[in-house]
């Protein structure tokens, strides 16, 4: 803000008073504000980029989970089909599996 005829300086000149000090202080504050706004703008752009990247990753995870869910559903269907068969056959498979795991663990511990 410039004001004409402010004392001895003549029209259009500033007087060596507190007014010019306030102008300098205002300009310094404006520069500080510009720097802060620029930093916020850069930060906002970085946040936007990160959000886009995270959304892309979430979409990929969603499709991976969908495919895994389909595979798991098919496996559960097979288990149900197996359980509908004779119970003695399933029990025999479970017993053989347990014995296999037991021998593998026994062999593994004995080697140590």
Automatic annotation (TrEMBL):
Subcellular location field: Endomembrane system; Endoplasmic reticulum membrane; Golgi apparatus, cis-Golgi network membrane
PROSITE patterns, sorted: T_SNARE
Transmembrane helix as UniProt keyword: yes
Matches recorded under SMART domains: t_SNARE
Transmembrane segments: 90-109
Major subcellular site: membrane
Stretches assigned to the T-SNARE coiled-coil homology domain: 20-82
Keywords annotated in UniProt: Coiled coil, Endoplasmic reticulum, ER-Golgi transport, Golgi apparatus, Membrane, Phosphoprotein, Protein transport, Transmembrane, Transmembrane helix, Transport
An individual GO BP term: protein transport
Membrane topology according to the record: Single-pass type IV membrane protein; Single-pass membrane protein
UniProt GO cellular component terms: endoplasmic reticulum membrane; Golgi apparatus
CDD domains reported in the protein's UniProt record: SNARE_Bet1
Subunit structure: Interacts with SNARE complex members GOSR2, SEC22B and STX5. Interacts with LMAN1/ERGIC53. Interacts with STX17.
Family indicated by similarity: Belongs to the BET1 family.
Record's function text: Required for vesicular transport from the ER to the Golgi complex. Functions as a SNARE involved in the docking process of ER-derived vesicles with the cis-Golgi membrane.
Database matches in PANTHER family: GOLGI SNARE BET1-RELATED
Identification of the protein by name: BET1 homolog
């Amino acid at each position: 803000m410039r004001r004409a005829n402010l004392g001895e300086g003549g029209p259009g000149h500033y007087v060596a008073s507190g007014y010019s000090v306030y102008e300098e202080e205002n300009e310094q504050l404006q520069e500080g504000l510009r720097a802060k706004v620029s930093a916020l703008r850069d930060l906002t752009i970085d946040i936007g980029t990160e959000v886009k990247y995270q959304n892309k990753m979430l979409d990929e995870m969603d499709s991976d989970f969908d495919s895994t869910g389909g595979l798991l559903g098919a496996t559960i269907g097979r288990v149900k089909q197996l359980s509908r068969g004779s119970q003695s056959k399933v029990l025999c498979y479970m017993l053989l599996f347990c014995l296999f795991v037991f021998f593998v663990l026994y062999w593994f511990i004995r080697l140590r």
